[in-house]
Amino acid sequence: MATETPGAGDPARTIAALWGTRQPPRRGPKHTLTTVQVAAAAIELADHDQDLESLSMRRVAEALGVGTMSLYTYIASRDELLEIMLDTVYAEAVHELGTPGDADSWEDGLRQMARVNWELYLRHPWVLQIFTGRPPLGPNTIAKYERELRTVDGIGLTDVEMDAVITLVHTHVEGVARQRIEADRTVRRTGLTDEQWWKTVEPALSEVFDPSAFPIASRVGQAAGQAYQSAHNPEHAYAFGLERLIAGLAVLVAERSSATA
Prior knowledge:
Layout: H1 11-19, H2 35-49, H3 57-64, H4 68-71, H5 78-97, H6 106-123, H7 139-150, H8 159-190, H9 194-208, H10 215-228, H11 234-260
Helix pairs in contact: 2-3, 2-5, 5-6, 5-7, 6-8, 6-11, 8-11
Protein name: TetR/AcrR family transcriptional regulator
Pfam families: TetR_C_1
Keywords: DNA-binding, Transcription, Transcription regulation
């Protein structure tokens, strides 16, 4: 669940900061930092913590060896900082998505897009804490959207359907990535792997659980547990769900193609 909802600040100032067009004031102390350096320090802290809860302007200032108030010369608020951080890491995805024609087909293009976003979330788990229904309107955010749309451009979909396909893939990848990240956090927090956890609860469960009363759940749960060595497997859910999405979209693309033939 997203816990951060940036976007409440001055939109003109934030967009200027995102696009690098904001000019620092001429008066006052000499400017020894850049917005890029401030964002990089914040990203390093968030990556280390794998969380945004403890990220503050004070901690970023300490990491840079400057006073907290001096950061406001470059970035207006923590909310603005989050938007710049998000747009900054999106540059990684822009680079990894490559150029049009790199993928052999639109299906492979969607697989590449999904993988790039999956890996982005695992590198920067804090990204999932930021609500992106109102995305930062920075150059990397827009470039990422552009490259993702190129994957399904020219295959017979309407513009609205193209946007919906990208949203559908994002929603799937984001949901499964959350499960993976939460699973990793649970292991760190409890000190138990899923297999170790199951060994601790199985004896107590066996005292009250009658498999004959829940035959389907018992059969399927046992099969899945043996296959995953866990109650769930985010990597399997990611791959399985993605292929089902692509198969369903292929039907839509074929329908559009036959309608125009």
